[in-house]
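Researcher: Last one for today. Full complex below.
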Amino acid sequence: MFHKNLRELPPFGDTLGMDWVESVEDQVRVRLCPSDRVRLSKSVDAYHPGAILATLDNACGWCIRQHPRYTDGTSMATLNLRVDLLERAPMTGPLLVTARCDSYDGEVAHVRGEARYEDSQHMVATVQATFMLGTPNLPREALETASQETFR
Amino acid sequence: MNEGTRLDRLKAIIDSDAYAKTLGLDVELRGDSVRTITNTTEDLVGNVNLPALHGGVVGSLLMLTAALQLNVQMAEDERATLLDIDVDYLRSGRVIQTFGSATLIRKGRRAATLAARLWQEDEQRPIASGRMSFLLQRSEEAPLTLV
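Model: Here's the assembly. Have a good evening.
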């Protein structure tokens, strides 16, 4: 799942209806469309901040694979993430989340991004995140088994 | 408001929050302390190889746990809007039952700051912690939302 050209959504991306749009140089764009699954509440027709955070996180992870130094197959996990919600975002149209990798040193990647309305480009949220690279990418049990076999 | 009424109010807010229901969030109240319980499913996974919960799920559970705790400590005519969230991911979240609690750090007239944490099998081994700021406004007419 950690391949440069693989655009397969994680299960939660499918659950929310995220949509990979494009990769341009060091940036990735992901769309989030209005739906009941991402609605703030029955009475407020706005994007849920949790859905915006999840789309920002997803785009941040994807954009690391666009960095020129990214080695295909390198796994990663979010270390920390900060989201600023600039205003409540009514579901008047799709949001376009853009993320770009500012630095990549083999251990850690630093990423920034934002969520804007696709039509007006009006910004509703920003994100700044740090990802650890080369994190375990097998279940703990499988890693323990592999480790035991190494020492046999 | 007694504990049963407050819990009913929290459950009604969750019921009106489709996203919280997508996550499978539920809540318990012990005195003034909120505890969230989430029966996670494969739909919430971010890394299918481990498998691990999506970072967005973890962040969302932290924000919703904090929002529920804040709701317990707000006046009935107060409304909270999430301004920002800082999440530290401490361990990968497995697809098992996940618990959350939050602490009100400060509540002023216009803003509140909370800290929240999530854990799974062992409360002493949190999978994530977070800090959130909320804007507070007084309005009985505005619909009550969590974040």
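Residues 55-72 of chain B form the longest helix (18 residues). Residues 3-138 of chain B form a domain with the Thiol Ester Dehydrase; Chain A fold (CATH 3.10.129.10).
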